[in-house]
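Why does residue order matter? Because the sequence determines the fold. Keep that principle in mind as you read this record.
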Amino acid sequence: MRAIMALSGGMDSTGLLIRLLADGYAVDCLSFEYGQKHNIELERAEMNIQYLASMGILIEHRIIDLSSAMSVFHSALTTEGFDIPEGHYEEEQMKQTVVPNRNAIFASILYGYALSVALEEDCDVKIALGVHSGDHAIYPDCRPEFYASLSDAFKIGNWDSERVDFHLPYIDGNKKTILLDTLHATRQLKLDFDTVLRNTNTSYNPDSEGRASGKSGADIERILAFHAIGRVDPIEYVDDWDTVLQNALELNA
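Structure:
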């Protein structure tokens, strides 16, 4: 079985990678440099690629540089002088973290790569993405109808498109769903769950040492998900775990 996926270096895509490996897929990963302020996530993605290699699991990993184009898009994630908002994901100001057309651009590149692999290796290919229901309220390009429409357009616009399909296993789930699935998959592969998750970045505004702020919408969803499964997040936060957890719980009340 063959899969191509976008590996951001965050917990969602990392969890998806571990699940695909546990399910027996041979996986290629593409990461995207698009001018994001939190591009430490690319370093974290490479850390997990190296960890997997140390455990005997070799992954083809490529970083695609889109910064010359996408860094001019207006978003709190890419625009200098535009502060990353803090608060719960569902709050209105979180829309400032939307990067216009981001997932359509990523999906187009992934589709072209997947078609190339399908033709070169004479196989069917899944394009796997870690999008989930927690993102739907704020990111319109994470919704199932978006990917259904995109898939139809790509099939119309390409020969041999019957060999490629989108695979969105978490589309109706959330970060708790992903963490529980990652926990099971790491056990299947005899990997250390805390090491895998420590080698990720979810924060949109980590400090200069790479420590998560604990205050961006993405941080808060992650903190609440770890709390929901009864575990302490292994990444380093600017504040201690009890402090960031209390802040997340208060914002979610």
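The chain is about 45% helix and 10% strand.
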